Amino acid sequence: KGSTFYVDIPFDQSVIDKSKGKEFRLADLPTDLRFLIVDDNPINILLMKQFFHGFKKVATVNNGEDALLALEKETFDMIITDINMPNMSGEELLTIIRKSGKHTKTCVLATSADAATLPGQENKEITFDGFIEKPFTEVELVKTVLHALYKNQQGRLKQHPA
After folding, report:
1. Which of 15, 45, 78, 111 is the most exposed place for a label (fewest CB within 10 A)?
2. What is the SS3 assignment for 101?
């Protein structure tokens, strides 16, 4: 009625990715990163300010319209935006930023307390560089930021070979 098989697969211990277990900390990020935090909830803004207090530039705004004004005045390496905001959602903000063509080197991350509201990326031309589900830990935040920076750097290297 059935068979049972046992298999031993030899492998070299060095193939195991030792970085998988690494817990990234804010100290692993370059301190000269410039952040723009967009969230309509003052508690979330306060939390993000606490996370990034040791960084060169951390600007915060309460809505998408103010984010666009801030982007006209300054350049940021990373924008972290809430998805669900009144008047302009995080997705609408992302679309405007990407279509402007001015901030091609800027990573845009989405945050949301409801994973169901995080937009699907399949078959979309314009996508976020990463997602952070609220509530999040320092490890999750840093891992997402590092991944976005790496992905962004790889994309630019492919577009502009040296």
Report:
1. 15
2. coil
